[in-house]
Amino acid sequence: MYEPAVGNLNIDIAPQITFEDIPEHWVCPIYGFGKDVFVPLEG
Protein backbone atom coordinates (compact mmCIF):
# COMPACT_ATOMS: atom_id res chain seq x y z
CA MET A 1 0.00 0.00 0.00
CA TYR A 2 1.41 3.39 -0.99
CA GLU A 3 1.02 6.30 1.43
CA PRO A 4 1.87 9.64 -0.26
CA ALA A 5 2.68 11.38 3.04
CA VAL A 6 5.43 8.83 3.64
CA GLY A 7 6.55 7.95 0.11
CA ASN A 8 8.84 4.97 -0.33
CA LEU A 9 12.52 5.78 -0.12
CA ASN A 10 13.40 2.13 -0.77
CA ILE A 11 12.34 2.68 -4.38
CA ASP A 12 13.28 6.38 -4.64
CA ILE A 13 9.78 7.86 -4.22
CA ALA A 14 10.01 10.87 -1.92
CA PRO A 15 7.30 11.82 0.59
CA GLN A 16 4.48 14.01 -0.74
CA ILE A 17 4.61 12.44 -4.23
CA THR A 18 1.09 11.47 -5.25
CA PHE A 19 0.53 8.14 -6.98
CA GLU A 20 -0.57 10.06 -10.07
CA ASP A 21 2.84 11.76 -10.17
CA ILE A 22 4.78 8.49 -10.16
CA PRO A 23 6.06 7.89 -13.72
CA GLU A 24 3.86 5.74 -15.97
CA HIS A 25 6.77 3.34 -16.60
CA TRP A 26 7.00 2.55 -12.86
CA VAL A 27 6.72 -1.15 -11.96
CA CYS A 28 6.14 -2.51 -8.46
CA PRO A 29 9.51 -3.94 -7.34
CA ILE A 30 7.82 -6.69 -5.31
CA TYR A 31 5.10 -7.95 -7.67
CA GLY A 32 6.24 -6.65 -11.06
CA PHE A 33 2.92 -4.97 -11.88
CA GLY A 34 2.61 -1.58 -13.58
CA LYS A 35 0.61 1.37 -12.24
CA ASP A 36 -2.44 0.43 -14.29
CA VAL A 37 -3.09 -2.61 -12.06
CA PHE A 38 -3.36 -0.62 -8.81
CA VAL A 39 -6.56 0.97 -7.51
CA PRO A 40 -7.08 3.52 -4.73
CA LEU A 41 -8.36 2.28 -1.38
CA GLU A 42 -11.38 4.06 0.05
CA GLY A 43 -11.44 4.72 3.72
TrEMBL record:
List the molecular function annotations (GO) for this entry.
iron ion binding
Domain of life where this protein originates: Bacteria
Kindly give the InterPro entries that the UniProt entry links to this protein: Rubredoxin_dom
Matches recorded under Gene3D superfamilies? 2.20.28.10
What's one Pfam family the UniProt record gives for this protein?
Rubredoxin
Q: Where is the Rubredoxin domain?
A: 1-38
The name on file for this protein is Rubredoxin
Q: Which organism is it from?
A: Agathobacter rectalis
